[in-house]
């Protein structure tokens, strides 16, 4: 097995950590390693670095720094937000509203709560992956304590009308959480203007390190703790601070939001060239997700008559990292709940491919993918009984 | 250009070493683990079972060590349809199926072969103990018994067609299991000392009846035990609990050892008799596949085996209707409908079929 060139088109899964970010982190491994919660001066410097990072994160989303809590990633942030609100407000009601296309870190938490006496409404989405605001309004009852709706979808890239959702939640006095793991660094976010009460984010989606994330909790929101123990994070999240991670997260989110528009423009241009090329060169292809309201780097397409699984493996053999459906723990693929929710039939959902572009993507990468992808799809179609049937029907 | 082989890797020692041997033989090797039955907690939670997470992790580590591409592919739907449903239906029909044979026929050497070809493979490979050789005289591909008689797996492979055989490489056929373990050890493969798996992969606790009851609870109904003359002699728990020749677990105290001699699904009856009634010498089999030739034109002397663990016995096979009649020289114990009968000529697998009737 020889490793050919590497074309990384899976930025939605994770990104590399930028060298500038790593550089900022390095001293906190070897020199300034003191425990941020200790009393001596050496530790205080660590504490100061944590607070600087907290300000950086707060600024990036329009929050105040004492509303930011560091956690170990997006899944923890989602778990904390939803379970913490549910348990803290169960005297007021037991109803939660979410959508059918959330990440499993939200869906499985909701299922867990359903098994523990809560009721959950899963809003449907239209063929572009957008929720219906009227359906949301109708779903609200006097028992509703939480609305949790993702900012942007990880698979199809659709961006929800978050400000409108926030407005509805605010008017009805319901807490609003958004999983913004895919959105941070790709979309401008202002928790004040958008009336967001809780927001999850993860460092490794915007060129920060893995293993660090944050939950924004609006001041005054009552929430139970998820991780119990020491008094870190103002007694709300126990565990010795991941100092280098926190510093890296701060630096990464600062860099990601500083050049947001410029960065998005560049990525979007490449994305559109790739997407247009695919649609032009490969017949019987469908774009999944909203044509405009989508993440700048996201492409999700279904190629009729083939299986995404074989396609992915072929791409891997050519050094192209892409994804399809949702990966399960072992790495095998089931049809994605998101694609099924936007109404794709089972067999077409199976034939989907997600390419997510980012800072590592070059124009040469686009050329290469446009050169090899049509050939692979054609080859797989030639071996597909579905395609054979289709062609025969066409001839009759 | 190197020929490309896709090998099915279970995470066990056999397929791991097979992958290594293929590399040694100069193939371009891709390892695939077939995800077939992950929804079952019992399978997932226990260590080392085929297609559990542990198995996938083991296979992935072996692939990494060997430096080959490795993927997990999803076969859940087709496995459910072609193997599990078949398994359940056969039991409900009073038969005793062999799901490994169905899996080889429909999954490993059909769906898996197709998927491998999509990846550009020239051949597929497995860690089976068996040999595939081409008979240069006739031009036909033959399936031969493996060198290690104790591990020989040709019984479960009799359905292979000429097309499948011509696209299959089986590198373990010339090795003993002990030698395979040694090689794994020499290579420092983590799986060198993993125990052999012998049970059915999707029923790891061997409780077939429990498995079937869980899937079709209302179809497993208690009924009567009867003797060979039709007299009711007790209550049974549902026919899926029994197989021909069974003695244990009947819960009958008749003052002598008794055995299941027949199962009548239409009447939900289990027939009980003496051990001598379990011995029969003639059977009729259908769904026949023959390997060295396409068609059986007259009587043929073979040795035949009526289940995986049975000893081969001399028999004559002759064409009859859509199948063959197999007449053993001496009566065989517990010839069971649903099981496969496999024919050999020395080390050559002549073919086999599924037992439809015991005469």
UniProtKB/TrEMBL annotation, chain A:
It catalyses: (sulfur carrier)-H + L-cysteine = (sulfur carrier)-SH + L-alanine. SUPFAM superfamilies: PLP-dependent transferases. It is an enzyme of class 2 (transferase). Its EC number is 2.8.1.7. Keywords: 2Fe-2S, Coiled coil, Cytoplasm, Iron, Iron-sulfur, Metal-binding, Pyridoxal phosphate, Transferase. One of its GO terms (biological process) is [2Fe-2S] cluster assembly. Its cofactor is pyridoxal 5'-phosphate. Pyridoxal 5'-phosphate binds at residues 74-75, 154, 182, 240. GO terms for cellular component: L-cysteine desulfurase complex. The active site is at residue 328. The keyword Transferase applies. Pathway: Cofactor biosynthesis; iron-sulfur cluster biosynthesis. Master enzyme that delivers sulfur to a number of partners involved in Fe-S cluster assembly, tRNA modification or cofactor biosynthesis. Catalyzes the removal of elemental sulfur atoms from cysteine to produce alanine. Functions as a sulfur delivery protein for Fe-S cluster synthesis onto IscU, an Fe-S scaffold assembly protein, as well as other S acceptor proteins. This is Cysteine desulfurase IscS.
UniProtKB/TrEMBL annotation, chain B:
It comes from Fervidicella metallireducens AeB. The keyword Chaperone does not apply. The active site is at residues 103, 201. Catalyzes the 2-thiolation of uridine at the wobble position (U34) of tRNA, leading to the formation of s(2)U34. This is tRNA-specific 2-thiouridylase MnmA. The record marks 128, 339 as: Interaction with tRNA. InterPro entries: MnmA-like, MnmA-like_C, MnmA-like_central, MnmA-like_central_sf, Rossmann-like_a/b/a_fold. Residues 281-355 form the tRNA-specific 2-thiouridylase MnmA-like C-terminal domain. ATP binds at residues 8-15, 34, 127. GO terms for cellular component: cytoplasm.
């Amino acid at each position: 097995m020889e490793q050919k060139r590497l074309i990384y088109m899976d930025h939605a899964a994770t990104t590399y950590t930028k060298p500038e970010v790593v550089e900022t982190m390095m001293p906190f491994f070897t020199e300034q390693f003191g425990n941020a919660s200790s009393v001596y001066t050496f530790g205080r410097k660590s504490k100061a670095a944590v607070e600087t990072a907290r300000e950086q994160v707060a600024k990036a989303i329009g929050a105040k720094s004492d509303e930011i809590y560091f956690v170990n990633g997006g899944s923890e942030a989602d778990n904390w937000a939803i379970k913490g609100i549910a348990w803290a407000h169960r005297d007021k009601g037991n109803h939660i509203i979410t959508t059918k296309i959330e990440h499993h870190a939200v869906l499985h938490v909701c299922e867990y709560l359903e098994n523990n006496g809560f009721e959950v409404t899963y809003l449907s989405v239209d063929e572009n992956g957008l929720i219906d605001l009227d359906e949301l309004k109708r779903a609200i009852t006097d028992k509703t304590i939480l609305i949790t709706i993702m900012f942007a979808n990880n698979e199809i890239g659709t961006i929800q009308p978050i400000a409108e959702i926030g407005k509805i939640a605010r008017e009805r006095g319901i807490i609003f959480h958004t999983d913004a793991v895919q959105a941070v660094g790709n979309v401008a976010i202002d928790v004040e203007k958008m009336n967001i009460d809780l927001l999850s984010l993860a460092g490794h989606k915007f060129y920060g390190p893995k293993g660090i994330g944050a939950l924004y909790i609006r001041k005054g929101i009552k929430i139970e703790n998820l991780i119990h123990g020491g008094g870190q994070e103002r007694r709300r999240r126990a565990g010795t601070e991941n100092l280098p991670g926190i510093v890296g997260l701060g630096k990464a989110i600062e860099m990601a939001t500083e050049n947001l528009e410029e960065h998005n423009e560049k990525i979007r241009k490449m994305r559109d060239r790739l997407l247009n090329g695919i649609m032009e060169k490969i017949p019987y292809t469908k774009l999944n997700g909203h044509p405009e309201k989508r993440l700048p780097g996201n492409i999700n397409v279904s190629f009729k008559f083939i299986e995404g699984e074989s396609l992915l493996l072929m791409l891997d053999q050519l050094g192209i990292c892409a994804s399809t459906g949702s990966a399960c723990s072992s790495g095998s693929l089931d049809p994605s709940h998101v694609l099924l929710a936007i109404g794709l039939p089972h067999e077409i959902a199976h034939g989907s491919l997600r390419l997510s572009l980012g800072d590592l993507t070059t124009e040469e990468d686009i050329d290469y993918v446009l050169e090899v992808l049509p050939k692979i799809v054609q080859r797989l179609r030639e071996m597909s009984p579905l395609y054979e049937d289709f062609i025969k029907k066409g001839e009759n | 250009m190197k020929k490309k082989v896709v090998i099915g890797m279970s995470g066990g020692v056999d397929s791991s070493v097979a992958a290594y041997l293929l590399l040694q033989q100069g193939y371009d090797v891709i390892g695939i683990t077939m995800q077939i039955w992950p929804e079952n907690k019992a399978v997932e939670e226990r260590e080392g079972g085929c297609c559990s997470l542990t198995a996938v992790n083991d296979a992935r580590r072996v692939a990494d060590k060997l430096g080959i591409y490795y993927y997990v592919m999803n076969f859940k739907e087709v496995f459910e349809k072609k193997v599990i449903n078949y398994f359940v239906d056969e039991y409900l029909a009073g038969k005793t199926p062999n799901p490994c044979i169905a899996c080889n026929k429909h999954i490993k050497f059909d769906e898996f072969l197709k998927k491998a070809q999509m990846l550009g493979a020239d051949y597929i490979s497995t860690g089976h103990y068996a040999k595939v050789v081409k008979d240069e005289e006739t031009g036909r591909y033959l399936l031969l018994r493996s060198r290690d008689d104790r591990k020989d797996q040709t019984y479960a492979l009799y359905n292979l067609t000429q097309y499948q055989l011509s696209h299959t490489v089986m590198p373990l056929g010339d090795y003993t299991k002990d030698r395979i373990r040694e090689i794994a050890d020499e290579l420092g493969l983590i799986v060198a000392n993993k125990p052999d798996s012998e049970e059915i992969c999707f029923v790891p606790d061997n409780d077939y009846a429990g498995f079937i009851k869980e899937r079709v609870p209302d179809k497993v109904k208690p009924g009567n035990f009867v003797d060979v003359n039709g007299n009711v002699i007790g209550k049974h728990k549902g026919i899926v609990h029994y197989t021909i020749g069974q003695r244990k677990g009947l819960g009958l105290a008749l003052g002598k050892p008794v055995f299941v001699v027949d199962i009548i699904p239409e009447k939900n009856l289990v027939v009980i008799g003496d051990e001598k009634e379990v011995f029969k010498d003639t059977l009729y089999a259908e769904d026949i596949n023959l390997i060295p030739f396409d068609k059986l034109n007259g009587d043929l002397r073979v040795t035949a085996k009526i289940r995986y663990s049975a000893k081969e016995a001399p028999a004559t096979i002759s064409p009859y209707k859509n199948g063959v009649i197999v007449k053993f020289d001496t009566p065989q114990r517990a010839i069971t409908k649903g099981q496969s009968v496999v024919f050999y000529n020395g080390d050559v697998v002549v073919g086999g079929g599924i037992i439809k009737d015991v005469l």
